[in-house]
Design goal:
441 residues, single chain, 2 helices, 21-stranded parallel β-sheet, mainly beta
């Protein structure tokens, strides 16, 4: 009997110490006190709800010891920290459909546990859902077996997701809709079948998300569509690693900036294998300013059809087709000066419409064998300039070569008149026979 009491005291002491790791505050409770049992398969939903209610509006720290707890649609109230034993040691597993946890207030933290959506038991679940809660933190949490979203934020404000692991989410891994002040850092995203790892949407004034120092790795054979979808303002994508472990055509992009994207920063990322026909960066029609700087191997068919400036600066290995339909500036893309190298046979850079293509800082653009630089003006002039001095210009074409559809070379106007003679004039010609004849066909 004395031995049994001793063991019981030791176990209680270990539980108290583990809870104290969550906080030194005095409002600490354990779900075990309210009847939860991590060693059976009986529902623990009522025990969790009773423990959360007992903490009251001031909240506190709810400790969940090592074990597997079967719950569903548990709402975590404001000012509560839900703290497991370890990420792999404490598992909250769904035993019904809906969501495993819902955030029902502000200042909620979920940490040191696993969220299991129960997809292996044919349940349809989101992992964690936060609708309009403020100051939420998810730390050291593993998400798995979620048939919906692993983590879904709607109208959330100041949410921090850190040091967590996402394994799947049939609808998507992390979806933040109309949320602002989002930080995702130090996480691992890996799966075989997901439409996206992170999706950010905001049609009004919601904005500001930072995605930094994460590792995205997918097997594209099962259909990973996009890694990050940025359809919101002020999204910063910094120092992440992107990799697809299978070379297939099913993975479409690592970063997709959609029509509501504006002031998007893409800096210091490492882009690895992307899949056959995939793109590291897609900027869709309607997207506004996007800035890419200091990325490694941002080189797989970057497509830009947005409506404002795209600035790409000091990115390494730009060696594939670049297609742009608005302003493109490249400043210092190489280590020793500004240059753009197209080494692949038949590669090209094409600039359409009213955009311009510029290489600065005493740099150069170099085209390899069978390559071409194609400038096509739907309206406006096409110029080759050195600083502010025009070297070659093709003026606007209206109704005749001598009027505006002619070549301007170092300020001199050249055209072929109606009789086939090459003429030159120091100013724009006033007629087809203006200027001096310098040659004849």
């Amino acid at each position: 009997m004395k031995t049994f009491k001793c063991i019981r005291i030791i176990v209680m002491a270990v539980m108290f110490f583990s809870a104290a790791v969550c906080s030194n505050a005095h409002d600490i409770a354990s779900v075990v006190t309210y009847g939860a049992n991590g060693s059976d398969t009986i529902s623990d939903t009522t025990a969790f709800n009773n423990a959360i209610t007992a903490l009251g509006p001031n909240g506190g720290y709810l400790f969940i010891p090592h074990g597997v707890y079967y719950i569903n649609n548990v709402t975590v109230s404001q000012n509560i920290t839900l703290c497991g034993d370890t990420q792999g040691g404490t598992i909250l597993k769904a035993n019904g459909s809906g969501q495993v946890l819902s955030i029902g207030g502000s200042n909620v933290t979920i940490q040191d546990l696993t969220i299991d959506g129960g997809e292996d038991q044919a349940y349809s679940n989101n992992g964690i859902v936060n609708s309009s809660g403020k100051a939420m933190a998810v730390k050291n949490v593993n998400f798995q077996n979620c048939s919906g979203y692993a983590l879904y934020l709607q109208l959330a404000y100041q949410a921090e997701i850190s040091n967590s692991t996402f394994h799947g989410g049939t609808a998507g891994m992390l979806y933040a809709d109309a949320s602002s002040g989002l930080f995702v850092r130090g996480c691992i995203f890996e799966a075989k079948t997901v439409p996206f790892a992170i999706k950010l949407t905001a049609t009004t004034n919601a904005h500001s998300a930072t995605i930094s120092n994460n590792w995205f790795e997918f097997n594209a054979n099962a259909g990973v569509t996009d890694t990050i979808i940025a359809d919101a303002q002020e999204v910063s994508i910094l120092n992440n690693k992107f990799s697809v472990t299978s070379d297939t055509a099913q993975h479409l992009s690592h970063i997709r900036v959609k029509s509501h994207g504006d002031r998007t920063l893409i800096i210091g990322n490492n882009f690895q294998q992307c899949g056959s026909g995939a793109k590291n960066l897609i900027i869709e029609t309607g997207a506004k300013t996007t800035y890419a700087c200091g990325n490694r191997d941002l080189n797989s068919n970057v497509t830009d059809s947005g409506t404002s400036s795209f600035l790409m600066e000091t990115n390494s290995t730009l060696d594939s087709n670049l297609i742009y339909q608005k302003n493109l500036l490249l400043q210092n893309p190489g280590a020793t000066g500004a240059n753009i190298g197209f080494d692949a046979v038949n590669s090209k850079i094409t600039v359409f419409g009213a955009g311009y293509f510029g290489v600065y800082s005493y740099g150069y653009a170099e085209l390899g064998a069978n390559s071409q630089l194609h400038l096509k003006a739907n309206s406006g002039a096409i110029n080759l300039k050195s600083d502010s001095n025009t070297i070659i210009e093709k003026a606007n074409a209206t109704s005749g070569n001598w009027q505006t559809g002619h070549l301007v070379l170092c300020g001199k106007h050249l055209w072929v008149d109606s009789t086939g003679k090459l003429r030159i004039n120091s100013a724009a010609p006033a007629s087809d026979t203006d200027g001096i004849i310098v040659g004849q066909q």
